[in-house]
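User: I'm putting together notes for a lab meeting next week and I want to include a structural view of one of the chains we've been expressing. I don't have a solved structure, so I'd like a prediction I can at least talk through. The sequence is below, exactly as it appears in our construct file.
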Amino acid sequence: MTFLPIVERELRVAARQRSSFWLRIAAALATVVVAAHFLVLNALAGRMPFSLGAALFTTLTWMSFAAAVSAGIFFTSDCLSEEKREGTLGLLFLTDLRGYDVVLGKLLATSVRTLYALLATFPVLALALLMGGVSGGEFWARVLALANGLFFSLAAGLFVSSVSRDAHKAIAGTILVLVLFVGLLPLADGWRSAHRGGGFAPALSYASPGFNCYAAGGLRSGPFWASLAVTHALGWVFLALASLWTPHAWQQKAEAATAKGRWRYRWRYGGAQGRAARRRRLLDQNPVLWLVSRERWQGVAMRVLLLGVLGLLAWLLWSESANQALLLLAVGLMGLIGLLLQLWMASQASRFFVEARRNRALELLLASPLSVQEILAGQWRALRRLFSLPILLVLALQVVVGVLRTETMFTLGPAGAGPVISFAGKIGFGAVGAVTTLADLIALGWVGMWMGLTSRNANFATLKTFVFVQIIPWFALSFVSGILMAALAFRGVLAFGGGTSAAWVSWFPLVSVVVTGLLTWAKDAGLALWARRKLHTQFRELAARSVTPVRVPPPPPRPRPAGPPPVIASPV
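Assistant: Thanks for the context. Below is the predicted structure for the 572-residue chain, given as structure tokens.
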């Protein structure tokens, strides 16, 4: 028997996919655009290229790390659970295959595209090495940290997928595991070090791929190699656990009549009285609203998020005047909460139509007297019902953080040169970020609904939604806003003169936030209107095509070419 036959087959299939080629091109193009943008802005500022190597290298490294760590969310978190739902995973275990055959096959099949994309960024990182300011040891240490972060993320996604069956729960579980190891462990060490009053002392951070990438800057110190060993070993632990659990978790167990099955059903949908009350209240308003809002665990998760946001808001207001380090820590937590909320919005908006196509509920909706406007309105009302209160609290938190950052930003500026901003102006400064977040969430909701209608599974629908709404526009907006701010800065210095140019420098952050906010609002409005128009005009056509795929009839057979006339023998 061939050693690891699934691995060989999956590698052959993945290497021939068009996405493997285009993802590599997109990754290389993104890093080239960022590097070109970086060089253009610094050339306008009058800085020489040899002074930019370290800054460019750090920027590209952390962008690549964010992409590598998020790979497990979109590529491996649903690969085994999807096989369970489709009933095809058990067919593999009818042979003499083992769990590690399947798990390693899925790992390598999903890692081909992501590894190609990561390798495509390394030549651009090497350009920063040639520019100066970066040593060869630091370059190779960061390369090892990026590859290790990719391996850790994919292994964590496989482990969560092996113990899950629902796509939404698999994605949420992978996000929680990655947030715990990448972000919360270093934050816990930072909290402990801030209270002790000394420098940062890593303890739990050794198990964090994020700390490993950070420690790669000091290659000669021990934390990098220790963290690399610990995180790499944790990745293999995840793979071993997935290999042990997968052969025992593929069966569709009939738990509806058991106590365990009833408990799980109550946890997911609530008790009988709660289900009946929710059905009476929501079904009369809109059937789609009731279908999307049936699961109770999402509301429980939102309540947990609300408690976390309220606790962070109270902590921020209480501790800001005592310690500025805690303010920076709170800003990082706020950014993490905002990112999780955006990912949740993209996943939840695209999930309903993906699952409705799979379980034939979309076919029933098309046969009902509901119009397209009513179906879309029910989905959007369910999103508002689920996300309204968390969004309001996150926006309030962003306004508070914006006010505090404004005070810090202009207090640290040149004495006497900074602008005088009233309290209402500080609130407006914070409100710009809050309105930007709200616009992003609205665009994610509409585009997510469209991607759910046109994608084959929830993972790719979420990935495409986030890429088209956040990642690709971020590159374009960063380039445009950077060029605009460079031009405004040049004109501002000329207008104020050399002696008073510090006044323009102090105004620069406020103008930058406003310009970036205006461009982001225009982007979100355009994407939301485009997706809404697509949904209202092409919903019934695409939904019907997904239920009954269009079969192209085979071409008619070609007529046989006429041969020479038959020779008739003359009678004797």
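A couple of points you could mention at the meeting. The radius of gyration is 28 Å. Residues 1-251 form one domain.

User: Perfect, that's what I needed.
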